[in-house]
Amino acid sequence: MAEIFRLSRPEDALEALLSSLAPGPLDRELLSAAESLGRVCAEDLHSPQALPSFVRSTMDGYAVRAADTYGASEGLPAYLHLAGEVPMGSDSGLRFKKGECALVHTGGMIPEGADAVVMVEQTQKSRNDEIEVLRSVAEGENSVQIGEDVAEGSLIFPAGQRLRPQDIGGLTALGITRLSLAARPRVAILSTGDEVLPPETSLVPGKVRDINSYTLSALVEEAGGVPDRRGIIADNHERILSAAQTALQESDILVISAGSSVSVRDLTAKVIDALGSPGVLVHGVSIKPGKPTILAVCDGKPVIGLPGNPVSAFVAARLFLLPVLRKLLGLREYPAKTAERTVRARLGRKIASSAGRADFVPVKLVYTDRGLPTAEPVFGKSNLIFTLIHADGLVSIPVDANGLHGDDEVEVQLFS
């Protein structure tokens, strides 16, 4: 078993955990494009066709041979024979000869033999079957070519791409209605503690309602996992071990809330070490809040022991649970900060810190008309959940720093 509270730097702790896990995705499933929003591609996806599949007009106007318009001007227009109109949604069947044109509409198909479109505003009718072109056009002007958006066979989404609303539109444009997606990892969440009650229970002196199970469930769901709250277990080694064994067997990740600090009643580290090998990798991380976090791998599955204080549990879960979820989903750049939404801001006041640990301070963003927003620290103890509720994100103070000065430019890791 790892030595208790031999503190690890946060980046070293995360590397120890991630390097002990097999790359994702864990499994895959075939779903419709309509069900794919927010899901992760399990394999590279290539275009089955060119898009567009025909040359299209980007304007209402006249399809022409560009060469027939060269030198045209208002003073010396080019005269073209009007061969017909291209109906929307079909091929007109027209085959252009020199000096001919056809009326086309935005998005309509350009007839064979035409290679450009003159905007209708740059023409005028001279007779029913003839137009005057008042401006020359270049080949390809006001038109979209075959494959200009997507070439047939090209890579459209790599494995590990999380699909966005516009991506769903792209799939349907290509006729891709079903695709292979990474299965969502199942995360069992176990709360421990004699003092913890379900949220629907009336409080009695000395008791607190379960916060962490619900905060962690929301984090997991937002990150693409499936949360599975396994209830509250009293501070008893046998009961916690039995519940943890069952939960780990039925899930891909196990999170145990509370019981991670050093005391005779804190049993999580012993329980985790009994779940499988190699067991506890890290017990104690040089961060505030969240120092007593436990990171482990038990028979190939990640197990994380989080502090009981809500702010500590939330910060540690963002640092360690979310990267694990991203890896098991097979997301690209899973450990990188690019996976988090950030914004630059100026710190509203000085924040003190101690070298040797990374501090994560909740901040509220105040927007003005003076450039960068101001990040105002929201100070509070780690057992006060509304410290987070009043904040928009976290500012990180590096391990080797002694704090940050007011008006320093900082990067805020946004909550959503």
Note down, in words, how this protein is organized.
- The radius of gyration is 31 Å and the shape is elongated.
- The chain contains seven helices and 28 strands.
- The longest helix is centred in the last third of the chain and has 20 residues.
- A hairpin with a 7-residue loop joins β24 and β25.
- With 416 residues, it is α/β, with parallel strands linked by helices.
- α3 runs parallel beside α6.
- The protein has four domains: 172 residues, Molybdenum Cofactor Biosythetic Enzyme, Chain A; 46 residues, Molybdopterin biosynthesis moea protein, domain 2, CATH 3.90.105; 89 residues, Molybdopterin biosynthesis moeA protein, domain 3; 74 residues, Beta-clip.
- It has a six-stranded mixed beta sheet with strand order 7-4-6-5-9-8, with no helix packed on it. It has a six-stranded mixed beta sheet with strand order 16-13-17-21-20-18, with helices on both faces. Strands 22-25-24-26-28 form a five-stranded mixed beta barrel.
